[in-house]
Design goal:
The protein is an alpha/beta fold and 738 residues long. It is 31% helix and 17% strand. It starts with a strand and ends in a 19-residue tail after the last strand.
Length: 738
């Protein structure tokens, strides 16, 4: 941080999405004066999106809790001391586990944990201390199929290939909208400029999506596809690749098993057959495949739209297969593996796991130590889960069938939330433990450096000094762990001794032992290599270079080979065959029903971002997008309030008519629905919207991975009945002394 007269200039990475944009924050008299892009950041190069300016809203938000609170007998909130709070939490968890067993306590981690290295480093030891199998996170509503594929193909759940966007000549994007997300599982700040650069150098960008997204508008090509049919489409690409002899794995063939199996599997998925399911013509499939394979370098990438569907696991597998058989894995311009300064693959010594245990009611499989969150509500209803710990999560709004979970939480024996808001989920808590906000603690992106399209490193010092009576998230997590471990081992006591000094100590160790450090020698005065102290000398960050080929050495499979056709995924193809006729018939006999998909928005990422005026200004963004033809067929007009119904619920939202939608498909954003009683979010409650997850069915999952299947939900849309008032947006008052 530098000092210019009375104005301080602070440089840090934004932690509100995956892009890691560098920020220049100016502060005067303890108040943020401005937030702008850091032009000296070698990765983001001065770019920021609208979310970054909301950091000052977060820091000063009067709704943000600064001290622990407990629920009173009449449903209000009372401020308590940290010691009281920790005692209540310890007693509540021990009581439930003593009466019902250790698995009766569940824990859910929300997406913001991944943006906080303190939570990432200190969360797992707390989970271990709870000794429960009921572990959940946002992973199973978002990205589990990516990890599933990497675990079976490459040997580790965190060995995720990312598109080498800056060098590719053909970017094929399915179900993703990087122009809005700035990359998702592909950290790429200023992605619009990067996509434009592909076309400027003579390359192509093609988007396959049921909606003509912001990315599609920038691309050289867009292909409409019916929601939930991407697995058939991807198989049809493979069919053409093998049929026309376009497979050229090159050097990958020497350490890849299963190419022959994939050739055989693809035989039945000819474009003429799959077009009846996907709606993509055979000619379009063949030409797209030929163009992809003819490019000097190419990469196939798929994100939320292909992950959160009935065959999400198969989709992410087939995307990897296409990159491998065309020789576009582990090559410049293709899909590559990062070599970050903190190697999270090395840091997470256990490569992953699958089906070590199952959920109580439906027996859904564990993956990577977690159960699918779609099973949480039903296991609570069945009494298998009696208490819940949440950390930076709002599953009532972010997981399927939110109303059902809402009711289950109301009947829970004990709920504790590590969160600084009273939101739709934490309103059920008996105790809330609020951590400091992001500008009050240091920051390093453990995960997103590992998913970036260039190897980079950047450490951010705290901007503001937190008040003495506040706690960082890592301090809360560490204290809870200590209290819940009855007989600590020597290893645990050793961990506590180091961990109590703060996550920066652990970060320093990880940097020193990473690929750019020099191990123990760097502890010495004459040591070389990257350390935290050295990284601090570069407040704008360090560019460690373009991604480099790293296979087969980087593989984590026991035999250091790519397992392209693992039995678990090959066997799931039979489910795809069984669904083929039904998927084709579904579009021929819709009987007035529409298919719902999600929508990412540049001013939003998580539900708590709806409480910031800078992000919520402008027109209502919680709308249902619909094609004009579908609106005419239902006698609907732009701006009408419509009722959207599914098997599990119904909501009311304003209608937005747009030809960017594929006929027969409608779209809604997630994270809204803030009008529930007891929510203390002033801005969000003033513009509450409706929760799309009150429509999403917790029984709709990818049977292979357990990931939620949001995309492709069948709904009906009708005008709000005459004489029925629009849903009110006022929030109920909260009795609180906090």
């Amino acid at each position: 941080m530098t000092n210019s007269a009375a104005e301080l200039v602070h440089h840090r990475s934004c932690n509100l999405c995956e892009a890691m944009c560098g920020l220049e924050i100016r502060v005067r008299d303890g108040e943020v004066v401005s937030i702008r892009g850091d032009e000296n950041d070698p990765f983001s190069r001065g770019h920021i999106c609208p979310k970054a300016v909301a950091l000052q809203d977060i820091h000063g938000d009067p709704d943000r809790l600064r001290h622990p609170v407990k629920k009173t007998e009449h449903g209000g909130w009372q401020r308590i001391s940290w010691e009281q709070a920790f005692e209540l939490v310890e007693a509540g968890i021990r009581r439930v586990q003593a009466h019902h067993g250790r698995d009766a306590v569940a824990i859910y981690g929300g997406n913001p944990n991944v943006h906080n290295y303190g939570s990432l480093l200190y969360g797992p030891p707390l989970i271990h201390a709870l000794r429960t199998r009921h572990r959940y996170s946002a992973t199973s509503v978002d990205q589990l199929p990516h990890h599933f594929s990497s675990y079976f193909l490459y040997g580790h759940i965190l060995l995720l290939p990312v598109p080498d966007l800056d060098r590719t000549q053909f970017f094929l994007c399915l179900g993703g909208n990087p122009a809005v997300s700035n990359g998702s599982l592909m950290t790429a700040p200023d992605v619009k400029k990067r996509l434009g650069a592909i076309q400027e150098r003579g390359g192509r960008v093609v988007v396959v999506d049921p909606r003509r997204t912001e990315t599609a508008n920038l691309a050289g090509g867009h292909v409409f596809i019916r929601p939930g049919t991407d697995a058939w489409f991807l198989f049809s690409l493979l069919h053409v690749i093998f049929q026309e002899g376009l497979d050229q794995p090159g050097r990958l063939a020497a350490f890849t098993d299963g190419i022959g199996v994939m050739r055989e599997l693809a035989t039945e998925f000819d474009p003429e057959t799959t077009s009846k399911i996907t709606g993509v013509s055979a000619d379009a499939v063949r030409q797209l495949t030929r163009d992809f394979c003819a490019a000097d370098s190419a990469v196939c990438y798929g994100r939320m739209g292909v992950s959160t569907q009935e065959f999400g696991g198969l989709c992410q597998w087939l995307i990897n297969v296409i990159n491998v058989v065309t020789g576009n894995l582990d090559r410049p311009g293709g899909a590559m593996f990062t070599r970050p300064a903190v190697d999270v693959v090395k840091l997470k010594k256990k490569p992953g796991s699958f089906r070590r245990w199952t959920s109580h009611v439906r027996e859904l499989p564990e993956f990577g130590g977690e159960l699918p969150v779609s099973s949480l509500a039903e296991d609570m209803e069945a009494g298998a889960v009696r208490a819940l710990v949440t950390s930076a999560g709002n599953p009532v709004l972010s997981t399927p069938d939110g109303r059902r979970l809402d009711l289950a939480l109301a009947d829970a024996e004990f709920v504790v939330s590590i969160d600084f808001y009273i939101n739709e989920t934490t309103r059920h808590a008996d105790v809330i433990l609020p951590p400091t906000a992001s500008l009050e603690h240091d920051h390093y992106d453990l995960i997103f450096h590992a998913l970036a399209i260039r190897d980079t490193a950047r450490y951010s010092e705290p901007l503001f000094t937190p008040a003495d009576d506040t706690r960082h998230d890592w301090q809360i997590l560490l204290e809870l762990q200590k209290r819940l471990v009855t007989k600590p081992t020597f290893a645990q006591r050793s961990w506590w001794a180091v961990a109590s000094r703060g996550p920066h100590v652990l970060l320093d160790l990880a940097l020193r032992s990473g690929p750019y450090g020099s191990g123990l020698r760097s502890f010495l005065p004459f040591g070389k290599g990257l350390s935290l102290e050295r990284l601090k000398r570069y407040p704008h960050g360090i560019d460690l270079g373009a991604l480099k080929p790293s296979l087969p050495d980087r593989l984590q499979t026991p035999d250091r080979r790519i397992h392209l056709a693992p039995a678990e995924l090959v066997e799931d193809v039979s489910r795809l065959r069984q669904r083929a006729d039904g998927m084709a018939a579904q579009w021929q006999n819709r009987a007035g029903r529409l298919t719902l998909i999600g929508r990412r928005q540049v001013r939003s990422n998580n539900s708590w971002m709806h409480n910031y005026p800078r992000l919520m200004k402008g027109s209502d963004r919680c709308t249902l997008l619909m094609h004009p033809d579908d609106a005419v067929a239902r006698s609907l007009s732009d701006g009408d309030h419509v009722r959207v119904s599914s098997r599990v619920g119904e909501i009311e939202v304003p209608l937005e008519i747009s030809d960017e939608m594929m006929p027969g498909v409608v779209s809604m954003p997630h994270g809204f629905g803030h009008a529930r009683e007891g929510v203390r979010l002033t801005t969000a409650s003033g513009r509450p919207g409706a929760s799309v997850n009150d429509l999403n069915d917790s029984r709709r999952i990818d049977d292979l991975t357990g990931n939620a299947a949001f995309s492709g939900l069948s709904v009906t849309v009708v005008a709000r009945p005459k004489g029925r008032p629009a849903a009110k947006s006022a929030a109920a008052s909260v009795e609180a002394s906090a």
